[in-house]
Amino acid sequence: MLSNQDSAGKRTSLHGHWSSRMAFILAVTGSAVGLGNIWKFPYIAGQNGGGAFVLVYLICVIVIGMPVMMSEILIGRRGRRNPIATMELLGKEEGSSGNWRWVGGMGVLAGILILSYYSVIAGWTLGYVVKSASGVFVGATAEAVSAEFSGFVGDWRVIGFCHTLFMSLAIFVVARGVERGLEQAVRFMVPALLILMLVLLGYSINSGSFGEGVAFMFTPDWSKLTWGSVLAALGQAFFTLSIGMGAIMAYGAYLPEETSITGASAAVVTADTSIAILAGLAIFPLVFANGLDPADGPGLVFQTLPLAFGQMAGGVFFSTIFFVLLSFAAWTSAIGLMEPAVAWVVEHYNKSRSAATVLIGGLIWVIGLASVLSFNVLAETKFLAGTLFDNVDYLTSNIMLPLGGLLITIFAGWVMCRNSTADELGSSGSLYKAWRLLARFIAPIGILFVLINAVT
Fold it and tell me: Quick one: how far is CA 321 from the chain centroid?
């Protein structure tokens, strides 16, 4: 099914448009801000020396993340369709080939696969909201907290239920459409997420170790910065913005013509990065105040922090707040991951939005059961990168996303003509020239480093 056209002959999306620039910024910020900001960023910074890593990360966000995001948005708005149809249409229009649809298809598939395991981890956050509110971690020892986590993920029925509940929440929002579903959800959840983060930050400031946390975050220790750290910063900058998976392109298709892509992208990148920094400022002081290790890895959120909260006055309340915050962040990301596939089914098969959402959501739920079982029944079934969960994570995060981002940036920078990209970015001045330089040369080279590191 083709996109509609307005009276001026301009393409319009079949799914509607964001009601305002702010709605778009909130939606893309919600999609970008997820477990990668609040769960992953603090522990990666912790493992790579803190301040030096943060500085490299910020540089990578500006010189690579920003131009790739702008590329994906401008392609989405230019095509006004789902990522697959958009890439095919623009490929033909720009005198290249309709085979670019496979790039859009890879992004849609990546979103499905990522959400299949992302939903499982997000389900854990729902489970930990209940555990925190019920006081499970009050006064608990490190051994007790570790045993609680092991028992939780070791029961496939419990985490399977949490996975089901989380996917149901995502399906509910996406099925309601752009304005009634996506927009209403992010208008509430993104500000709520920020408020919860500030509440947690206020608590952290009074922990007694806030200065130590700030020093760790912003004092560069170049002796701990390795080439691996630089690649980790590059990868984190790329993945935290949700680029390369079709979500930003799909959201760009609903962006009004009068909205500046450069300004909106800058606002999203600023908000996304700020929340990642705030997460570190909220978490590290609590870690230091309790004599814990900031480099504890993925266990920082589900084992180290519950232990810290359990020893603090008001720990039940603030632990609950923290996991509610994580749940909101995951929820806003999930709806962005699901949207490209739903838009494709609606357009390609002429299905109603609710039917398409249930179909895609059900498919993702079924695939996610493999990740559920990876932590218990199939925990010993390992090949290539590890468990089923590990393999899907590795394939999507280390190969599909950077490859998709690389091809999208090449398409925008090299395949689309100068007139097309300048028309969408609304400028032929210095900002446009800076984007063109970064999108054509700097960003592709940076992404290639990520890809080469992943496969060697």
Answer: 21
In a domain, 11, yes or no: no
Q: Domain containing 59: what range?
A: 17-455
Asked if 169 and 364 count as a contact pair (C-beta separation under 8 A), the reply is no
Q: Looking at residues 397-411, what average pLDDT do you find? A: 91
Interval 317-335: pLDDT, tens: 989 998 998 898 899 899 9
Domain count, the chain: 1
Axis-axis angle for helices 401-410, 227-240 (nearest 10): 70
Q: Amino acid identity, residue 150?
A: S
The CATH number assigned to the domain holding 363 equals 1.10.4160
0.85 surpassed by pTM? yes
